[in-house]
Specification:
This protein has 236 residues and is of the alpha+beta class. 31% of the residues lie in helices and 29% in strands.
Length: 236
């Protein structure tokens, strides 16, 4: 039924290659099927002005797609000319990752997660959240190793996966052909312990029932469990 031949509840192959770049405090290349995102974490001993002298740390994110990440070339976005989609996605990544951070334990410093989509085949924001957590984990490990942070500020894993209704069936981890044809699609962000951080759901040409919503949440929980296992293996 699925164009890829996958089972309804089957994830794409997930690989996470850590320390992918030399200079960032944390980095990885995450691949979810044909979608590939480079995630880096950069540490700065400062916070935004609204947090100065509060003792609280900050985690934020930026997101972008390379011009040939898709089938046809896109114009490169300047920061002051970012599309609404780009701005929405980077805010999503930032608040998702902050949900798994004890900002008091982090101390008055900022970690910026940059997510650059090298190749897109659906689920780029979900891959960015999942890979962004790995880059964040690696950066925090360095802070703890140096003694700059005493207690671990990461309270739980954070990962994200897409689910939707394609050809009348709830499916897990949509690739582009499925996403472009799905009557319902959404993004689910959960912690490693299974608590919800954010759900984005929309019907496009179809509606969905509360029972179908429950099925999609069940699929998302399964998918996030597999993503968290991949995160654990990557940072072990």
């Amino acid at each position: 039924m699925r164009p890829s031949g996958r089972a309804l509840d089957q994830m794409r192959e997930i690989t996470i290659e850590t320390d992918y770049t030399r200079h960032a405090e944390g980095s990885c290349l995450i691949s979810c099927g044909a979608t590939r995102v480079l995630c880096t974490a950069s540490l700065e001993e400062r916070v935004p002005p609204f947090l100065k002298n509060t003792g609280l740390g900050w985690v934020t994110a930026e997101y972008g797609m390379l011009p040939r990440a898709t089938n046809t070339r896109m114009r490169r976005e300047a920061k002051n000319g970012q599309s609404g989609r780009t701005q929405e996605i980077q805010r999503l990544i930032g608040r998702a990752l902050r949900a798994g951070v004890d900002r008091v334990a982090l101390g008055e410093r900022q970690i910026t997660i940059d997510c650059d989509v090298i190749q897109a085949d659906g689920g780029t924001r979900c891959a960015s959240v999942t890979g962004g957590w790995v880059a964040l984990r690696l950066a925090v490990n360095k802070l703890m190793k140096s003694g700059d942070v005493i207690s671990d500020p990461l309270t739980d894993h954070v990962a994200a996966v897409s689910c939707g209704i394609y050809a009348g069936q709830p499916i897990l981890d949509l690739d582009y052909p499925e996403d472009s044809e799905a009557g319902v699609d959404g993004n689910f962000i959960l912690t490693g312990s299974g608590r919800l951080i954010e759900v984005q759901m929309a019907a496009e040409g179809a509606t969905f029932s509360t029972e179908e919503m429950g099925e999609l949440l069940g699929l998302a929980s399964k998918g996030v469990g597999e993503l968290v296992a991949a995160q654990k293996a990557a940072v072990a």
